[in-house]
Amino acid sequence: MAKEQRAPVWAREDAFPPKPVSGAFGFLDTKSNEVAAESIDDLNAKINKTRSSVDLIWTPGKERLQAPEDLPELRDAIWKRRSHWAEIDLDNGKRMCWLFGAVTLYYLYVGYTNSGGHLARALLSPSLGISGILLLMFGLLPLYEGWKTLRKGKPSNDEEWQAEADESRFDSWLSRQKVPATYFLLAMIIASGLAQLFIERGLDWSAHSVGRAGLLKQGNVEWWRFLTAPFLHGNLLHWVMNAAAILFLGRRVELLARWPHVVIVMFGSALVGGLATSYFLASPSVGASGGIMGLLGFLLVFETMHTRLVPKSSRRRLLAGVIVTVLMGILGFQFIDNAAHAGGLIAGIGYAFIVFPTSKSPHRPAILMQDRWIAFAMAGVILGGLVLVLSKLIV
Question: For residue 1, what pLDDT is reported?
Answer without folding.
Answer: 44
